[in-house]
């Protein structure tokens, strides 16, 4: 088959006569092989399959954790294939090298990249299948294919009356050859893209039929729980295993890497046995610090090390010397948990020569490494079945919960479903890192002339590389896993990508300032960390946009107008800023006791500005309204965009109002939603979203709603009270 459009597709006829297409997505490895009629095996980056029975299957190579890939990516195919999205059945992709991003060589869902990377190839797949079906229909009728059309899953004769369903043409279509460019539908002919508001997973999720990891049931399945040390770094000295083993239903009690596991025939029997378990811990190497210790260490590091230069323009020191005034501020953000609604869980069935996993994971190929690490198997012996995720937010990029389930199944030789309690999920998370920001600006006659930003804190790659590095080289023997992880850290920025988790957003500072100095002081107190929704943009957004607000007030200027004049060369930033201000009626009087704050931030290629209207009622902060404008390029599903910006705003407000994981002597103090609080339903503000329409390439929306809402709320509280808050969470009595 000859195709000129980047060789996106391979086509084959399956043993059932189905039409199979595989797409090599941008950012994914090239296809090595296609469908094998002899064995029925297939190997592809993503598949579109049409069968003689009328089924249309799309194998989704991204996970669905609420962000809308299930619906959005299916819509791209449906648009070009001329079928309703709901007529396409979606299945989650298995682990295969073709799904990996070549930058990381990992099969991951994150970074708000799903729509952007799939935008063209999925449309090409649908258009190619449509064209081949039309060619097959024209051959049957012996007419010019250029005069035939496709509509609602049928090929229509040039007379506009006769038609034949796709199902009757798939075998013939699979033999067709497309030569030349594959035309995509122009925007003027779109029926679904930019218009569809359906969520294809809504019915399943509303009726409880969607399969989450925690729903998995297998024949002969048993249940596991793990008691982990209160202090990170502790090891097991001993435990009363015989006493626990004698309890009803308990199958085994044994030490694993992170503590002591209990396996029982029923979940609540495992929990009851856990309550009777007594573990003696060796805490000689355990963490014993507090949050105060962390920030003391950060300040010492900042004094000792000015940090690595990440962006330097002009001469900031000279700008300071010439300045009429120099303004400085310091900002703190605490550790944050992910608090996914579905706690960590995984089911693993070790069968001796193979293992199978059912898990809500954002990184299925890392799940294979997790099982291999805990058993005598190689990664190729492990099959991972990805389920729906009850929230991810970056937490499920780490596979510790799969490791524990694998260790338990390997020990007892049965399928084990291991579930974390909410308390375990909160106290043994890998957290959003605490960060310190030191800001300095030079000003002459109200004009910003210099910008300095020193970011102090750890990098996530240092923690993530443990399983990520072996997953890049699954052929490597397990004794090399530790070495691969160390090499991955040492080669950061050389053989492996530069870790920008601490600096992203800060180095993209958009305001027109002649002298810029942005630095990162890398220091790590040893508390486990990982990706958290919007990652570095979340803490850098708070520091940058709060400081910009401070500069506006120091200059005696309106915060909106102050930003506006510095964005003259940034039309997309300016567009969302203006739209959000108009949406919020910026400048108009508010009822007494209310104020507005504004902020904007570009993250993951998406521009978002937000205005928060807030007040204080009954000694508590009350957010009344969030007015948001978003530019994410061409939009596939407007309702999903609104949902994600709204969800991101609520997620960010939760962090701004309540988010704080507190360590005392190395022990996490929070345990459940009573002391690690979420925004409750009665607290949810009105969120209004204005979507910019343009022809720019599409970008993601799963995370960009988070960064600006936090500083916008802080700025509103300053406008209300005249008191500036430079640490999170925000309080009503600052």
UniProtKB/TrEMBL annotation:
Q: Residues in domain Aldehyde oxidase/xanthine dehydrogenase a/b hammerhead?
A: 207-285
Please report a single Pfam family linked to this protein.
MoCoBD_2
Q: Which residues form a coiled coil?
A: none
Check the record and name the SMART domains matching this protein.
Ald_Xan_dh_C
Q: Which GO terms describe its molecular function?
A: oxidoreductase activity
Note the superkingdom of the native organism.
Bacteria
What PROSITE patterns has UniProt attached to this entry?
A: TAT
Provide the protein name. Answer: Xanthine dehydrogenase family protein molybdopterin-binding subunit
Which species is this record about? Marinobacter salinexigens
Q: What is the lineage of its organism?
A: Bacteria, Pseudomonadati, Pseudomonadota, Gammaproteobacteria, Pseudomonadales
């Amino acid at each position: 088959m000859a195709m000129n459009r980047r060789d996106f597709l391979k086509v084959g006829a399956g043993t059932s006569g189905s039409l199979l297409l595989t797409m090599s997505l941008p950012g994914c490895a090239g296809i090595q092989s296609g469908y094998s009629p002899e064995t029925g095996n297939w190997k592809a980056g993503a598949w579109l399959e049409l069968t003689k029975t009328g089924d249309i299957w799309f194998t989704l190579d991204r996970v669905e954790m609420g962000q809308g890939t299930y619906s959005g990516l299916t819509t791209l195919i449906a648009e070009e294939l001329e079928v309703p999205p709901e007529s396409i059945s979606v299945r989650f992709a298995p682990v295969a090298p073709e799904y990996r991003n070549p930058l990381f060589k990992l099969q991951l869902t994150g970074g708000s990249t799903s729509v952007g990377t799939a935008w063209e190839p999925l449309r090409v797949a649908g258009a190619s299948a449509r064209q081949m079906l039309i060619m097959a229909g024209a051959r049957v009728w012996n007419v010019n294919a250029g005069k035939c059309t496709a509509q609602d899953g049928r090929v229509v004769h040039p007379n506009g009356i006769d038609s034949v369903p796709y199902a009757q043409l798939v075998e013939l279509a699979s033999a067709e050859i497309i030569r030349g460019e594959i035309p995509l539908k122009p925007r003027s002919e779109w029926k679904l893209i930019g218009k569809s508001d359906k969520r294809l997973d809504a019915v399943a999720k509303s009726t409880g039929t969607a399969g989450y990891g925690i729903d998995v049931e297998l024949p002969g399945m048993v249940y596991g729980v793990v008691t982990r040390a209160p202090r990170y770094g502790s090891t097991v000295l001993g435990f009363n295993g015989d006493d626990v083993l004698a309890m009803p239903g308990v199958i085994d009690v044994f030490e694993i890497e992170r503590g002591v596991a209990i396996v029982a025939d029923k979940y609540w029997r495992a929990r009851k046995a856990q309550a009777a378990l007594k573990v003696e811990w060796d805490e000689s190497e355990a963490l014993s610090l507090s949050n105060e210790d962390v920030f003391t260490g950060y300040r010492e590091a900042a004094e000792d090390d000015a940090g690595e230069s990440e962006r330097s323009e002009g001469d900031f020191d000279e700008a300071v010397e010439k300045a009429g005034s120099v303004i400085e501020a310091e900002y703190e953000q605490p550790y944050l948990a992910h608090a996914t609604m579905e706690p960590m869980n995984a089911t693993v069935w070790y069968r001796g020569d193979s293992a199978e996993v059912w898990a809500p994971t954002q990184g299925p190929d890392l799940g294979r490494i997790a099982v291999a690490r805990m058993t005598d198997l190689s990664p190729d012996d492990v099959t991972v079945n990805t389920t729906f995720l009850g929230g991810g937010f970056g937490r499920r990029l780490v596979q510790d919960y799969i490791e524990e389930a694998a260790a338990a199944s390997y020990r007892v030789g049965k399928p084990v479903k291991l579930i974390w309690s909410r308390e375990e999920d909160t106290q043994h998370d890998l957290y959003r890192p605490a960060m310190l920001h030191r800001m300095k600006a030079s000003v002459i006659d109200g004009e910003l002339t210099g910008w300095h930003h020193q970011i102090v804190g750890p990098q996530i790659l240092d923690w993530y590389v443990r399983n990520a590095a072996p997953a890049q080289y699954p052929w490597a023997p397990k004794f090399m896993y530790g070495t691969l992880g160390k090499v991955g850290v040492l080669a950061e920025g050389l053989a492996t990508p530069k870790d920008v988790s601490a600096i992203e957003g800060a180095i993209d500072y958009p305001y027109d300032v002649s002298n810029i100095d942005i630095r990162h002081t890398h220091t790590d107190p040893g508390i486990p960390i990982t990706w958290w929704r919007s990652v570095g943009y979340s803490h850098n957004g708070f520091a940058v946009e709060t400081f910009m607000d401070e500069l506006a007030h120091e200059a005696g200027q309106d915060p909106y107008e102050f930003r506006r004049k510095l964005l003259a060369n940034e039309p997309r930033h300016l567009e969302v800023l203006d739209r959000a201000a108009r949406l919020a009626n910026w400048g108009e009087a508010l009822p007494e006791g209310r104020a507005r704050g504004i902020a904007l931030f570009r993250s993951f290629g998406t521009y978002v500005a937000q205005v928060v209207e807030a007040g204080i009622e009954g000694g508590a902060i009350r957010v009344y309204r969030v007015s948001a404008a978003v530019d994410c390029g061409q939009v596939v599903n407007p309702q999903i965009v609104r949902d994600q910006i709204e969800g991101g705003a609520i997620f960010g407000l939760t962090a701004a109002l309540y988010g704080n994981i507190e360590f005392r002597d190395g022990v996490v103090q929070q345990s459940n939603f009573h002391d690690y609080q979420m925004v409750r339903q009665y607290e949810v503000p009105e969120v209004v979203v204005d979507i910019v329409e343009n022809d720019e390439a599409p970008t993601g929306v799963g995370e960009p709603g988070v960064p600006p809402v936090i500083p916008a709320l802080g700025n509103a509280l300053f406008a209300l009270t005249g008191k500036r808050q430079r640490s999170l969470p925000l309080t009503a009595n600052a």
